[in-house]
Design goal:
By secondary structure, the protein is an alpha/beta fold. The chain has twelve helices and eight strands.
Length: 271
């Protein structure tokens, strides 16, 4: 793990693999940290790629942020991190909120994005009901902490049948959620409530795109992934059986196979 001070905070990140390899930036979702990507990091590095997996501001070991953090703030942080690492363009992948941050990077910094990997995410702006829900949840986390929330949502973060079938995975996901500082989680929730609509951004993408979704995701179901695929018809859509909202940890073998195939056939083949 390495850290750097940028844009008024300190970001902690892992930078692994060959410096000559294809750079892949992996963005975790809410309320997790960079360890979410451990199975993908191992597989990507073994395939010769370079992996940058940061803790977003307010999450993991990075600096805690109170108030409101917009998706554009996260995206600007990550572009600054790429600058710090002298990386001009990277494959940018994210899950859930991380996928929306990846879309924000495409919207605001398209010249830095070599390809997109969008896992279990959605493109439209938040609804009025969704805004109210996220702001109420932010208030609740600040008042109560993360434990009760983590216990409530574990059966949605993972497919409910995987909570008991995969106790090690469920334990890891619970630990990440419980360890998140409520101030960081609340700030991200408030910012995410104000996110823009990314559908026009996606419709204009000409670089390679991989869309991945767990077959039993209840937060961003297969229909959401199909809607993104309709916007980006040249994209590759992969549905991961036996997984919910976090297929990268629930079915890492299937997820990694789709990711590595995409990188070899759609990204490096274009170079």
């Amino acid at each position: 793990m390495t850290s750097t001070a940028l844009r008024g905070t300190t970001l902690h990140y892992d930078d692994t693999g060959s410096s000559a390899g294809l750079p892949v930036l992996l963005i975790h979702g809410h309320p997790f940290n960079r360890s979410l990507w451990a199975p993908q990091t191992e597989a990507l590095v073994a395939a010769g790629h370079r992996v940058i997996a940061p803790d977003l501001r307010g999450y993991g070991d990075s600096g805690v942020e109170a108030g409101t953090v917009h998706l554009s703030d996260f995206a600007d942080d990550l572009v600054a991190l790429l600058d710090h690492l002298d990386i001009d363009r990277a494959v940018v992948g994210g899950v859930s909120m991380g996928g929306q941050i990846a879309m924000e990077m495409q919207r605001g910094h398209a010249h830095r994005v070599r390809a997109l990997v969008l896992s279990d995410t959605s493109a439209p702006a938040e609804t009025d009901d969704g805004k109210a829900f996220r702001n109420r949840l932010a208030d609740r986390l600040l008042a109560e902490g993360m434990d009760g929330y983590a216990d409530e949502v574990i059966g949605k973060m993972l497919a409910d049948y995987n909570v008991t079938a995969m106790p090690d995975v469920a334990g890891h996901v619970l630990r990440m959620m419980r360890a998140t500082d409520p101030r960081g989680a609340a700030a991200a929730l408030r910012g995410r409530a104000e996110r823009p609509d990314y559908r026009d951004t996606l419709a204009a993408v000409r670089s390679p795109v991989l869309i991945v979704v767990g077959a039993d995701d209840v937060y961003t179901p297969v229909g959401d992934a199909e809607a993104i695929h309709e916007l980006v018809p040249h994209a590759t859509l992969t549905v991961i059986e036996g997984a919910g909202h976090l297929p990268g940890v629930e079915q890492p073998g299937r997820f990694n196979a789709a990711l590595l195939d995409f990188l070899s056939t759609r990204v490096t083949a274009r170079t």
